[in-house]
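Q: Could you fold this chain for me?
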Amino acid sequence: MNFNIPAKVQFIIDTFYNNGFEAFLVGGCIRDYLLNKTPKDYDIATSATPDQTISLFEKTIPTGLQHGTVTVVIENENFEVTTYRTESEYIDNRHPEKVEFVKNIKEDLSRRDFTINAFAYNDKKGLLDFFEGKSDLKNKIIRAVGNSDIRFNEDALRMLRAIRFSSQLDFDIDKDTLSNIEKNNLLINNISFERIRDEISKILLSNNPRKGLLLLKNTGLLTNIIPEFKDTFGFDQKNPHHFEDVFEHSLSVLEKTPSILTVRLAALLHDIGKPSCFNLDEKGIGHFYGHNIKSEEISRKILNRLRFDNKTIKETLKLIREHMNVLDNPNNSNIKRLITRVGLDSIENLYSLQEADILSLKDPSVATHKIVKMREVTNNILISKEPLSLKDLAITGDDLINELGLSKGKIIGDVLKKLFNIILDYPDLNNKADLLKEAKKIVESYQN
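A: Sure. Below is the predicted structure, expressed as structure tokens.
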């Protein structure tokens, strides 16, 4: 078995062998090769100590010497090289207190998380598979190396990684491994929110996000990470348009959205406020007035807790807030107002979320045509290049000051905003002469 190893990686491995050391490609890159995928990165394990590694290469970065890791830089490209090691005494369910360098590649591989990540390969010794990872790849199984209970107590993040790999590869999780995730789900509370966020994001962006979220729910991990979901489980919407509980509906929406993080976060969270907004009318039909605002409020707390960046939070909340604005009679005026609220860069993301929401109803035909029409009107607006923001006004604050004698201050911004609202309905007025006339009327209304 031969893999097409990049020349720079082969150079690193050959350098070790030429100086009396072993070196192997290890981990996920071998898994990717076996799955006929191109690896995204290449990790190398070696029998050389960090100091020996540093001495062999012209440029290195001491990335994590205490854990045996050195970054070797070849023509401005970084490659992580780690000394064979064993780990013990995990005091915080994440980081080993004790790292010991060893000379045996099998000992190093035995500390890996899952069998499908515990491979080693070089062109001299071929593929090393001490833990039947190749068989698990063939059978599409995620299985811990050795005792899964011990593996998860060593590093609780591995529980999320198991579910992430299951979602990305569409593999099943071995029964014993899955059982021990459920048994140890409380340990996830010892992991940093940043690490959890990264794994959740990868699950959401996978080809099987519904599978991943159901695994998170069924193992108890989800309610440890996002306890706000608990009220959505099994919540009967008692509404003729819905046939799933709130959580299952959210997963249906999620799996129909494009693989864009903000859209998938919004899909997952868009109805999380429904249980607290629920009321029954006299006919016994459930309604959720204002649930988009409540969902936005709850989601803000969740996204901040998980340490998402401000841009992602702002974009996601905007989509959640606006997801109910599916217009019955879209026209240039109301679509332009929607675009100004959401932003031109985000409007298609909103339509994708709304479309997925509609397609997850009991009868999607009641509203799918509305999204078609909204996209059509939006396209016509873009083709005609109608003004969509204050900067598109044919008049500036300086014009108001110079032509109307206004003083700098709040009034300038107020007048410009009112002018912009006028041209959303009457785009033909977007010329300096007409806008100055309208501005005079606005100023006079302030004075009266």
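A (continued): The mean pLDDT is 94.
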